[in-house]
Amino acid sequence: MIQQMKMQRTTCWRMLAGFVVILFCANTSHGQALSRKDADEIRVLAREKIKGLNDLLNAISNEDLSNYERRYLMMNSYMPSTDQIFVNDGVIIEDDIDPKHKASAPGLDTPIEKYLSNFDLFYTKTETNTIEFTNLVVSDVKVDKYPFVKVFYTQHFKGKSNKDNTAYTPIARVAELRADKSGNDWIVYLTRVAFNSSDNAKAVPVTPKPSATYDSLQRKKEEPVVAQTTDKKPVPTPEDAKEGERVFKEINKPDQAQIQRARRTGIIKVGAGVAALAFGAVTYSMLNKDYKDYKNRIQNPEGLTSYAKPGIYISAGAAAVGLGVSLSSLFDFKKTR
Fold it and tell me: Which one of 171, 199, 219 terminates a domain?
C-alpha cells in the first residue's frame, strides 16, 4: 500500500514537472515573439517594397531608358545594392507576362533574372507609366524560421504584349516577403511573387537559394574595410623627389598671360587717372582765371563756388575720379610682382 502511494506521488511530481516545462517553453516562445512596433514596421516596409516593384516594372517599360539603363535597374533589384528589392537572384516568380496566364499552373515558375528579361522583351514600351498595383492588403507578421508577411494586390498591366498585341486583364497576385534585423532596423525583401490562390496564401515561404555570384558579392558587401598600418614612413626615391619638385615649380609658376593683363590694365588706369587729374586741374585753372577777371570788374562779387558752378564741381569730380583710378592701378602693378 505504501509502495503504491509512493508510485502515485512520483507520477504526480513528474506530471507537474512536465507541466512546468511546457509553461516555461511557452513563456520563452512568447518572449521571442515580435513586438507590435516591430510587426508594424515590417508591414510598412513590405508595402513600400511592393511599391518599389511597381516602380521597377514601370521603369523597365519606359521607352526613354536605354538598354543599358534597363539592365542596370534589373540587376540591382536582385543583387546586393541600395536598390535591392528581391532577397537574392534565386527568387522565383510565377510568369504573368503572357496575357493568357491568369492563375497558377505547372511550368510558370520563372527565376527572377529571366522573368525581368522576358518582361523587358515582351511588354510594350511607352512614354508614360502603364503598370499599377491596387487594393494592397498586408497580412500580419508571422514567424517561421524568420518573420515574414504576405502582400495581396491587384495587378493592372495597361499596356499590351509584343507577341500578339494582346491586352492584359487585371489579375490577383500575392507577394511573400521576409524580414531580417540589421542593428536597430528591419530590412524586408521579396522572396516570391505568385498568382493569388488559397494554396499560395497559406504556404510558408522558403528562402530562395542564391547563386555563387550573389554570395560572393554579399560577402564583399559585408566585409569591413580594414586599414593596413605600418610603422615605417614612406621614403621617396630621388626620382620621386625630382618629379615632386618639378610639379611644385609648375604649379607655382607665374601666369605670364595674367601678369601681362594686369600690367596693361595698370597702365590704362594710370593714363586715365592722369588725364582726369589734368582735365580737373585745367578746368579749375580756367575757372579761377575767369573769376579773377570778374572780381576785378565787380564791386560786390559773389564767391568762387557760386560764380563757377557747375564747372567747379565738374573739375573737382574729375580730379577725384582721376585720383581714385590712379590709386587702383597700384593693385594691378602689385599683381605683376
Answer: 219
State the pLDDT confidence band at 257, using cuts at 50, 70 and 90: low
Identify whether residues 111 and 201 lie together within a single domain. Answer: yes
Q: Where are the beta strands (DSSP E) in the chain?
A: 92-94, 109-111, 131-138, 142-143, 147-157, 171-182, 185-195
| Dihedral-angle region of residue 124 (phi above 0 means left; psi in -120 to 50 means alpha; beta otherwise) | beta
325, three cell numbers: 583710378
- Asked if residue 242 is part of any domain, the answer here is no
Query: Domain tally for the chain?
Result: 2
Q: Are residues 126 and 275 in the same domain?
A: no
Whether residue 54 contacts residue 175, with contact meaning beta carbons closer than 8 Å, is answered with no
- SS3 state at 110: strand
DSSP three-state, residue 81: coil
Looking at every residue in the chain, the average pLDDT score rounds to 78
In a 3-state reduction of DSSP, which class is residue 187?
A: strand
Q: How far apart are the first and last CA of the chain?
A: 122
**Cell digits of residue 158:** 495597361
Beta-strand pair 109-111/131-138: unpaired
Tell me the β-bridge partners of 189: 178
Which domain does 102 fall in, by range?
34-219
Mean pLDDT, residues 75-100: 95
Question: Are 187 and 302 found together in one domain?
Answer: no
